[in-house]
Design brief:
The protein has 1 helix and 6 strands; from the N terminus they run E-E-E-E-H-E-E. By secondary structure, it is an all-beta fold. The protein has a domain of about 90 residues: Nucleic acid-binding proteins (OB fold (Dihydrolipoamide Acetyltransferase, E2P)), CATH 2.40.50.140. Strands 1, 2, 3, 4, 5 and 6 form a 6-stranded antiparallel sheet that branches. A hairpin with a 5-residue loop joins strand 2 and strand 3. The longest helix has 4 residues. It is elongated. The model has no long low-confidence stretch (mean pLDDT about 80).
Length: about 140
């Protein structure tokens, strides 16, 4: 699954050694979605991914993640584990939406791979204009 948002908090790096003697580390972040009603989501990168994706507060990213739940002593805990983060380019401005052509102006050329829009009919039938009214 993917989610897009802005990093609003970088938590302290956690590390330790497992019972088997293996070293581990976990970096947690808080992301705020860019929706009309923003949501805050805490996620982490575990192991080598903690170093592979160094994120900072203010970065706008698209996060690919998995959700995992586990039971411990009769209680359930849920983790959002990130496996890839793609930073958005802050210098790339969003392309403005094209406006529909006005009368007498040609329509813009369609983008590669997109079908051409239907032609705009700007003619008006004066004789039948009143025939469509229900009264």
């Amino acid at each position: 699954m993917d989610i897009k948002g802005k990093i609003i908090q970088k938590l302290e790096l956690q590390s330790g050694t497992s019972k088997a003697g293996n070293a581990w580390k976990k970096q947690e972040y808080v992301l705020e979605t860019l929706d009309s009603y923003p949501k805050k989501v805490k996620f982490d990168f575990f192991g080598d991914r903690a170093d592979q994706y160094p994120l900072e507060v203010g970065d706008v990213i698209t996060l690919s993640y998995d959700i995992e739940s586990r039971e411990f002593n009769g209680r359930w805990y849920t983790d959002i584990r990130g496996f890839r983060a793609m930073k958005e380019d802050p210098n790339a401005a969003a392309a403005p939406a094209p406006y529909p052509p006005t009368a007498g102006e040609p329509a813009p050329a369609p983008e590669a791979g997109m079908p051409a829009p239907p032609p705009v009919d700007n003619t008006f039938d004066q004789a039948g204009a009143g025939d469509d009214l229900p009264f």
